[in-house]
Amino acid sequence: MSDRHIPAELPDRIRHYIDGSFVDSIDGDTFDVLDPVTNETYVQAAAGKKADIDRAVAAARRAFTEGPWPRMAARERSRILHRIADIVESRDARLAELESFDSGLPITQALGQARRAAENFRFFADLIVAEHDNAFKVPGRQMNYVNRKPIGVAGLITPWNTPFMLESWKLGPALATGNTVVLKPAEFTPLSASLWAGIFEEAGLPQGVFNLVNGLGEDAGDALVKHPDVPLISFTGESRTGQIIFGNAAPYLKGLSMELGGKSPAVVFADADLETAIDACIFGVFSLNGERCTAGSRILVERSIYDEFVERYAAQARRVKVGDPQDPATEVGALVHPEHYEKVMSYVEIGKTEGRLVAGGGRPEGFPTGNYVAPTVFADVSPDARIFQEEIFGPVVAITPFDSDEDALALANNTKYGLAAYVWTNDLRRAHNFAQAIEAGMVWLNSNNVRDLRTPFGGVKASGLGHEGGYRSIDFYTDQQAVHITLGEPHNPTFGKH
Predict the structure, then answer these.
(1) Residues 421, 412: contact at Cβ < 8 Å?
(2) Cα distance between residue 83 and residue 14, in whole Å
(3) For residue 114, what pLDDT is reported?
(4) What are the residues whose beta carbons fall under 8 Å from the beta carbon of 440, sequence distance 6 or more?
(5) CA–CA distances in Å: residue 38 to residues 1, 46, 192, 337
(6) What pLDDT sits at residue 2?
(7) Among 51, 60, 239, 419, which one is least packed by beta carbons within 10 Å?
């Protein structure tokens, strides 16, 4: 694909950003960053190690203990966060171009990510100004109030899918509450993260409040998790990595917020609006190249409409437009990295032995190179199949029939994950009872993944630990200190007087 569009003014090297300056790794080490369409190295990024993390944490710690940020009035911090949002919005085209180029996301979907990123900052800018703490009174006797305080240096570890938007999800509340941060972005997609430094400088964020260290998870991420001066870790990524982080953070008793994998069911009952459900279930697994934690990657369909659903769904999946990520007509772009492409393709091969292939199943026509996977649909998938149980994280979906509400619920809950669920039915009583019985942190009824930023985001079982979003993020990034004052005579049992 020689006509590949390469964004203008790409950096010659991606560096760390520590204490207000772009710096190389202390040992000079770098790693290759690949273009997902050609799989050729287009830039080298500084490979952070323990020494670089130590340097970044020291800068963040200094900004926390000596700098103005944690001591600013909420309104002052809010003004800076609103400026950040304004700058992000004004650069949405550039952000989307870089994000699409680096991650393989279709350009139209990348544009939405920039706007979402700005909205995350705006939301928390407003929330901290409206924030109030509780007071509990016993008239004439005692007054108790809660004093919220930022905790210190927050370690933020983000994934390679929709990287810029997911970074904003953590940066917004961590900064709004007065913490300082060290961000470790995913090594597959470090390009857009390097833009934060300029955005924050322009918005007036004090030096040392934001620090960025690139590198491999086992080097830079590991050092951040184990650093004794980082009391908080917020991580989004695979469940297995989450388990490792949990173990490594345990000796330090750190605060952990982890949003992990998913294998979310979309349950379609016979009384659903079939066309709407099909559209939603197509979008739910093929948007963002299928590289999304909340993807509805298991579709459970009531038997009386099963054959019609499978036929119509497969036909529509075959019409989904695969193409160059930078082409506005593209609906599914290139997967992020050859390593991930191999993983997804291995599941496609496994699926051919576990289900009936009704769409896709390999490379799309006309794409001999690059990490392209045709939207792939398997029908008649048994619940013990690997493609039913394991997270694939690509444009691959399994469809399974059910006979009754009880059967549907058992299938929906028959996985180690519990992040999201989607239910399609026009029976109001069934909708609510079914939704409440599903083991998932988030359920959408007759709706796609449309999220209100005030609601808790998180999963159960292997899909995560804790919730972020709205006030839950404020809770995670602050310590709540109870202060007690006696107003009347102190009630002291007297020891040792006589």
Answers:
(1) yes
(2) 25
(3) 85
(4) 264, 418, 419, 420, 421, 459, 460, 463
(5) 8, 22, 19, 10
(6) 46
(7) 51
DSSP state of 218: I
Q: Where are the beta strands (DSSP E) in 159-208?
A: 180-184
Among residues 167, 259, 291, 302, the one annotated as catalytic is 259
Q: pLDDT at position 4, please?
A: 82
Q: Is 256 helix (H, G, I), strand (E, B) or coil?
A: strand
pTM of the model: 0.97
Q: Which two tokens stand for residue 467?
A: 């919730």
Q: Which amino acid is at 269?
A: F
Helices marked H in 320-396: 338-354, 386-389
Out of 293, 302, 331, 468, the active site residue is 293
The answer to whether the CB of 258 falls within 8 A of the CB of 239 is no
281 flagged as catalytic: no
- C-alpha distances (whole Å) from 441 to each of 308, 447, 468 are 30, 16, 11
Those residues of the chain that have pLDDT short of 50 are: 1-2
What pLDDT does 387 receive?
Answer: 98
Instruction: Check residue 321 and give its pLDDT.
Output: 98
Order of strands, sheet of 356-359, starting from the edge strand that comes earlier in the sequence: 356-359, 376-379, 396-402, 298-302, 265-268, 420-424, 442-445
Residue 418 CA to residue 459 CA, distance in Å, equals 5
Q: Which amino acid is at 301?
A: V
Buried b (16+ CB within 10 A) or exposed e, 444-483: beeebbeeebeeebbbebbbbbbbbbbebbbbbbbeeeee
CA atoms within 13 A on the CB side of 336: 23
Q: What is the pLDDT of residue 1?
A: 43
What single DSSP character describes residue 480?
Answer: E
Task: Examine the residue annotation and report whether 259 is marked as an active-site residue of this protein.
Answer: yes
Dist. CA 397–CA 264, nearest whole Å: 11
CA 377, CA 318: separation in Å to the nearest integer? Answer: 9
DSSP, collapsed to helix, strand or coil, labels residue 122 as helix
